[in-house]
Amino acid sequence: MKNNPLNRKEVSMKRFITALFIVALFLGFTVAGMAQTNDNHTVSVAVSAVDEIDISDAAVTLTINSATAGSDLDAATDNTSTLSWTTNNASRKITVALSAAYSTGITLEVQAGAPSGGGTAMGTPAGSYTEVTTSDADLITGIDKAYATSSITYRASASVTAGVITSESRTVTYTLTAGS
Amino acid sequence: MNRLPAGLRIRRQVLMKESLKIRTISILIAGILPAAALMGQQVTIDISGSWSLTITSADLTAGAGSDFTSSYESNTDQISVDIDKVVSGNFWDWFLSYNWRVDVNKQDVNWHSDMELYVRRTSGGFGFGSISGGTSYQQITSSDRTFFSGNGRRYWIPLQLQLQGMSVEVPPGNYSTVVYYTVTEL
After folding, report:
1. What is the mean pLDDT of residues A56-71?
2. What is the rounded CA–CA span in Å between residue A157 and residue A51?
3. What is the CATH number of the domain that holds A100?
4. Residue A13 resides in a domain
5. Which of B19, B60, B180 is nearest residue A86 as measured by Cβ atoms?
6. What is the pLDDT of residues B136-145, one digit of tens each?
7. Which residues in chain A have Cβ-Cβ distances shorter than 8 Å to B175?
8. CA of B35, closest CA in chain A: separation in Å?
């Protein structure tokens, strides 16, 4: 029986059918598995922390050279500068400081005008002149995710006790920093 | 003519009947089963690409004292879409005619409410069927909206994305959303 050609044919046919069945099933499942009615992609946006500040005038000259008889020297003022800032952070303020002290008897003050711009809160300038010293002084506070520009007025005053001073140059630094 | 012994003749007749039965089953398996699977084949969509952008101080419109540029655009082919339906699995699938529509929506992972995302189709891609709609920017929201529609296989449909609403009021951070495209056979 082992060598019967009919038996061999039967076994061969069964193997063929089994193989065909497996192929058919595989084909069916493979094709069905490819169906995809939706797909997607991602959109990512990274927003960096931005704190930018800029003062318009590179140099301002204030000359004290007059007085009213019977009074101290007249103060000198300059309002040609503007201060601009942009921040996307909350709780920011602008401070002002001097690089080194002037001679005794000389005082520099600064005042910021009402800011114009946009955002959540542009900030509130100090109400009056702020004396500029070597220590940071708050000039504009309460800035919250905003951009704005403000006029800057300098006022320099000198006492007669300071005597005659040819020129004294100092750097005024504005800093946009964390704080309310 | 018939040289086989009687026992083997009967055996051969039985085998011939079985062989006929097996052939019938074979036809069913080889033909009907795959055909049934293919007839149920859906129109598919495949999306390639993504879009990432970083907002820095360089994006301020005029430096300190100004806001960020409010609108940003991706490349015109930032995203590529393939619409397909495999029936025969060969060249003739390019000539099949079936109508479809693509809808779009987004699901936010971490997104700011000020930011708006728009999408448009910048060309028709490649295919022998047709494609229409979706060439003007339309906002992507959390609800499905019809984007464009067409007929037949269509490959390499380029999409452009636009982000609007950026400002300093969007706090620093990483924002992301997933844009879903759904194809429906009509």
Report:
1. 92
2. 33
3. 2.60.40
4. no
5. B60
6. 999 999 999 9
7. 44-47
8. 8
Distances (CA, A) of B12 to A4, B1, B92, B120: 11, 15, 44, 70
Query: Are residue B49 and residue B28 in the same domain, yes or no?
Result: no
Domain match, B7 and B87 both: no
For residue A33, give the 3-state DSSP assignment: helix
Q: pLDDT tens digit string along A21-47? A: 555 444 444 444 444 599 999 999 999
For residue A53, which residues of chain B lie inside 8 Å, CB to CB? 64
Mention every residue, 6+ apart, whose C-beta is less than 8 A from residue B110.
B173, B174, B175, B176
For residue B34, give its domain range: 1-40
B135 and B169 within one domain:
yes
Contacts of B183 in chain A (CB under 8 A): 37-38
pTM over the 0.80 mark: no
Number of domains in chain A: 1
3-state secondary structure of A36: coil
DSSP per-residue letters across B82-125: EEE--SSSSGGGGG---EEEEEEEEEEEE--TT-EEEEEE-S--
Give residue B1's pLDDT band: very low, low, confident or very high (50, 70, 90).
Answer: very low
A50 Cβ contact list (under 8 Å, min separation 6): A86, A87, A88, A89, B56, B57, B60, B168, B172
Amino acid identity at B171: P
Domain that holds residue A128: 51-178
